[in-house]
Amino acid sequence: MNMEKVNSMDFGEFVDVFGNVIERCPLIAAAVWSQRPFFDLEDLEKHFFAFIDALPQSGQEGILRCHPDLAGREQQRGTLTAESQREQSSAGLTSLSAEERQQLEKLNAQYRARFGFPFVLAARLSDRAAVPRELERRLHCQPAQELRTALGEVKKIGHLRLVDLLGADSSRLKLR
Amino acid sequence: MNMEKVNSMDFGEFVDVFGNVIERCPLIAAAVWSQRPFFDLEDLEKHFFAFIDALPQSGQEGILRCHPDLAGREQQRGTLTAESQREQSSAGLTSLSAEERQQLEKLNAQYRARFGFPFVLAARLSDRAAVPRELERRLHCQPAQELRTALGEVKKIGHLRLVDLLGADSSRLKLR
Fold first, then answer.
1. What does the pLDDT look like over B115-155, one tens digit per residue?
2. What is the CATH number that goes with domain A69-150?
3. Region label for B87, one of left (φ > 0), alpha (ψ between -120 and 50) or beta (otherwise)
4. Where are the domains of chain B?
5. Which of B13, B22, B61, B65 to mutate to probe the A interface, most A CBs <10 Å?
């Protein structure tokens, strides 16, 4: 998909395509449409990230709370978004042993209790061995620092989803 | 449901219950959870509305763009949210004649083209005869005024959804 196509979309098409760039937050894609036209992937992504950065802390925490646990209840129930299902699968989180799953459940619960939002990680950049290690490490971070770290992961996830939608070459398709 | 129950919810339960108070914007419920405890329905609603009011204009437009057209494509495809389906049905918008539907489709398209968001109306406070009249009237309003009007309708819809969830008596259940 090239940027001319993106810039020609009405808001309904745009939200259909980009509504889950930020997990379960179509509001953000719907807001970003106001900023069209977009020059390239980086320009489009910049508007998603600027919207996140401008939210009050409660809104930033709200974004995180729209994310599922890794290897959690939603994955077991089959109610993940298609994007999240693929990402968790690519990290091997859909084929954990019962023991690995229980360990993650326990860590996820501790993390949620400590920070008031779920542990968010760009799973495609990780793997089943690294996820619990990283969860344990971040569990001991300070809340303000951890909020920044988690939003950084939201942006990594969003970047990879945009690359999937636009194709790796899209960053070189300049309209300028 | 009383407010003690609401205030005891973790964020997952809270978003499951209140995630569609603002149509397809679970982010807002997820953000509002940060403001607990809530004293009563008005207090809870105040936080939803304050979040909306504090968004930049693009975010407010984004909320509107997460709403379906009245008697539109989504209703015909059966992809409305349960709440929206009930509301459109209660206004008689699910049993329009072909002619009435075509008239609304045309007006909805004109409205979207003029304002960049769909026509939003608290359907439960209207009916099939009043909807196209109100749409025609608002089609001629100034954009800044129309944005305010439309957000007022979002708040009316949210209020009625909260009353449904909490019960009409909830406004008198004070924890203070």
1. 999 999 999 999 999 999 999 999 999 999 999 999 999 99
2. 1.10.3330.10
3. alpha
4. 3-61+163-171, 70-161
5. B65
